[in-house]
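Internal ticket - ligand job 356, nicotinamide-adenine-dinucleotide:
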Amino acid sequence: MKKIAILAGDGVGPEITAQAVAVLEALEHGGVKLAMQEAPVGGAAYDAAGDPLPESTLKLAKEVDAILFGSVGGPQYDALPRPKRPEQALLRLRKELGLFANLRPATVHPQLVNASTLRPEVVSGLDVLIVRELTGDIYFGQPRGIRPAEGGGREGFDTMRYTEHEIVRIARVGFLAARKRSRRLCSVDKANVLETSQLWREVVTAVGKEYPDVALTHMYVDNAAMQLLRDPKQFDVIVTGNMFGDILSDEASMLTGSIGMLPSASLDERSKGLYEPIHGSAPDIAGKNAANPLAAILSAAMMLRYSLGEDAAAVRVERAVAKVLAQGLRTADLHEPGTTRLGTREMGEAVVAALE
Ligand code: NAD
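stdout (C-alpha cells):
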C-alpha cells in the first residue's frame, strides 16, 4: 500500500485536485492500492493555522511515498510578510524533502495543435521531457551580491556553481527518464564559454557510460532555444541545469499553448516526488467549476510512473485523457467550435469513464 499526501491548496487547486483524486480512486478498483490523506497548504493553511506549511502537513509530506499538490497563492495573500506567503510552502517543501530534479513534459495532443502559436506540422505529436536541476546553479551559488565596483558605481555578481555529485545525480534522473521513453537524452550546457558547463559535459558523458542503451547528445543552450522552436520533435529528454532549465521549460510549455494541460514532478534521490500542474491557482476562475483538471490528472499519472512504479496505470490515465480529447470534450480554456464544453467536475468524470 503506497501512501499519498493530497495538498490541494488555494484557488482552483481544490477543484482540480479533487478530479485527480477521483481518477486515482477509480484505479484502485483496478488493483492500484493507495492510502490518500489530505492536509492544508498555502493560503488555506495560513487561514486555518497561521502558517502556509503547518508542522503537521510537513510531517505528513515526509512520511508519504508521493505528494499530489494543487496550487497555492491568491491576491488576498499578496500583502503578507514573506515567511507567511503561500508560495513559501512550496519552497520549503522542496528544500525539506530535497527535491532536486524537476521533470516537465511538454506534450501536444493531436486534437490541440491549434492551441499552439507554432504551425501544426511543427508541434503535432510533440512529446518532450525537460529534466531541470532545481537546487543548485547560479540561483543558489555563493558569493553573490551588489557591491561598489572598481572605478566607481556598483556591480552585481552571482556565482554559477555545480559539484560533480550534483551533476551525477541529475544526469542519472535524465538517463532513467529516457529509459522510460525513447532512449534519447540531450544534455544542454554552455560548455564553449562556461567552466561550470565544461565540468557538466565531462561528468554527464562519464555517467552516460552506465547507460549504453541511451543515446546521449550535447547541445549549447542558445542552439537548444532555437531548435525547440525550429524542430521541437527532434528531442526526447533534455537534461540541463537550473537556469537554462528554467528558461527552456517555459519555452517548451508555450509550444503546447495550453497551460491547463501540463503536469510536472519534483523528485528526490529516491524518486519520492511532489507532483503538480505547472499553472497557478487561477483566482480569476476559482470556484466556478471552469478550470481544466487535466494538468492535475496528468500529474497523478506522472506520480504513478515516477514514484509509485505503476507504469501501466500511468499509461491508462494518459490514454483516458487522450480519449476524452478525441471525443471532442473540452474545458472552457480549450473550447472551440465543434467541441463540447465541460466543467471541471464533468471533465474529471469523463476521464474516469474513459479509463480502460
Ligand atoms: P495562473 O497559472 O494561476 O493563471 C494564468 C492564467 O491561466 C489565468 O488566466 C488562469 O485563469 C489560466 N489558467 C491557469 N490554470 C488553468 C486551468 N487549470 N484551467 C484553465 N485556465 C487556467 O498564473 P497567475 O495568474 O500568474 O497566478 C495566480 C496565483 O497563482 C498567484 O498567486 C501566483 O503566485 C500563484 N502561482 C502558484 C503556482 C504554484 O502553486 N505552483 C504557480 C504559479 C503561480
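Auto-summary: The longest strand covers residues 2-9. The first helix runs from residue 13 to 28.
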